[in-house]
């Protein structure tokens, strides 16, 4: 049986509109405010509000800096005259959101131009027939995860990007205003006007700039490997926010109130260092704050349990942790199509990792290690094949298996083999291992059947 997976595209609304012949007429007849509201609803209120907030932020930044700095002016087509320096700073504030939007369109374009087909083999797999129920479950799960991933890209990518871009632009705006606005405007009710906030703003600005540039580099690398998802931007926004908070807190604790050049250099250098460290800086600062308040420091699970899976490196562990998989049990029971559609990992590598994880979950890590060392049983699929040979197994081999797995009696091994021979999870994994995967290029305007 065959399964053709449709393209990841953002043209769902266009396809639905073309299916209804009255839709274009209603769209054209609706004018004025009603038509504008309909178009905004189609675009998504979250995106509209994020765009409006971004526009207000950029305009407010320019308006706040206009009476304060800059003497040169720039005429735009003879219609509007703007001051050069405030305009450049406002453009700097606007750049993160614009850059992220371009990157998001790149991702949507790439996913809208590819299509997967998976051909399941219904015949015997290595001499053992695949149950029809396992094939149906594998096909259903593939369809479900395909639709889930497509919906996530079409509906969730741009809002995630908008939130990250708005957060980045707001941080830059507040830093620029904190540096350039007169202290009297920021602290009108304080007699002795402080200036320490300027060095804090420089630290946060250096942190935000460094963190954003490094994040853009990582995202571009992920895009090149077809491994960028909505979770990528959510994690990037989280890491960016943690870096900004860490930079601000560290600056408040360490920056002095003097206006010496060394203070400015130290503020910028400290901000760059926090941006380079990323989440590690937040962990260090949060532990230091916890020690000051007498609270217990945060303990982060490094996911060392996954090291027992052969072929799974440090980068793979970090990638799995992004998908909330930090244990062997989580790896054993995550749907194979979900990992495939959410990452650039090879389908056979995913099946191999899950094969090993299933065996460890079923019989324990020590017994799985013993089976691999003495009987070359790599995973649950090999163990199921061995269990199928129970009737023709020699007495000597049977006794060696009982001793190797440290079972109290032979009945325990028979019970395990009976369980393995009829395990639906292993049969489903065999279906994915034996399937043939193909990726096709989707031509715009051509509908696949």
Q: Could you characterize what this model shows?
A:
It is a single chain. This protein has 449 residues and is mainly α. The protein has three domains: 1-11 and 37-114 and 154-175, no CATH class; 182-300, no CATH class; 304-441, no CATH class. 69% of the residues lie in helices and 5% in strands. The protein contains 20 helices and five strands. It has helices spanning 12-19, 22-29, 32-43, 45-65, 84-111, 132-180, 183-186, 196-224, 230-254, 261-277, 279-293, 314-322, 328-333, 336-342, 347-363, 365-375, 380-388, 395-404, 410-421, 424-434; strands at residues 2-5, 73-76, 80-83, 114-119, 436-441. The chain has a three-stranded antiparallel sheet. It has a two-stranded antiparallel sheet with strand order 2-3. A hairpin with a 3-residue loop joins strand 2 and strand 3. Helix 6 packs parallel to helix 14 (336-342) and helix 9 (230-254) runs antiparallel to helix 10 (261-277). It is elongated and about 95 Å long. The protein starts with a strand and ends in an 8-residue tail after the last strand.
